[in-house]
Amino acid sequence: MTRQQSAPDLYKSTQHRCPYLLDRTAANLLVDPRFDVTPALYDSLIDNGFRRNGTLYYRPHCPQCDQCRSVRIPAQDFKVNRSQQRAMKRNASVTTELRTARFTAEHFSLYRRYQSDRHTGDSMDDPDPEKYRQFLINSNIDTFILELRIGRRLLSVSVMDHVANGLSAVYTFYDPDESHRSPGIFTILKQIELARSIEYDWLYLGYWIKDCQKMSYKSCFQPLEAFQPETNTWITVD
Prior knowledge:
Layout: E1 10-12, E2 16-17, E3 25-26, E4 28-31, H1 39-47, E5 51-53, E6 56-60, E7 69-74, H2 82-90, E8 95-100, H3 105-118, H4 129-137, E9 143-150, E10 153-163, E11 166-174, H5 183-197, E12 202-208, E13 224-228, E14 233-237
Parallel strand pairs: 11-12
Antiparallel strand pairs: 1-4, 2-3, 4-6, 5-6, 7-12, 7-13, 8-9, 9-10, 10-11, 13-14
């Protein structure tokens, strides 16, 4: 398709090792990077299980595996469980700020600490600030940053998008020395709170694999819906 057409061409990426199920091979369905993705098209892509990495839009399209599902929380129906209530109490003094999506040395420093702790030695653990910008700051969508602070000290940063009737959590990183606070869980709770305050229906949380321990925290947010590419529908999952 040409750039003037209403829908982009889709391409399949080369196969690579799955970062979540190490015995599997992964691949993605990619939107033509030459196509100008408008906010309206992005709304449609999100509703059909796509995510974005900077200005690259993709959906898993893996050989012989369909476990990777885009998930979302119905924000108005969400119920806090006991573990999440405890996380809220541990973070009662944490403050929240909304910022424009731009590069800051403070954010990048926290990002580097988080990646060094969680992804030592892999492609995410990279000291190049330009790659950080390409991944999180470069956007032609309505993007903003949600900051959480303990006093003046930065606890957590979430890069988020406004989408049709919802928010999409693009990526979150936090202070690894504050893991006792459950900062990842607490940040999602604040994202849900923000979605509710805007009277949005959805918080999109990215991809979830039922059998992947690293992603198990997402299923603790209930109700939770997962996109089914076979039928192009969203269904409730446990």
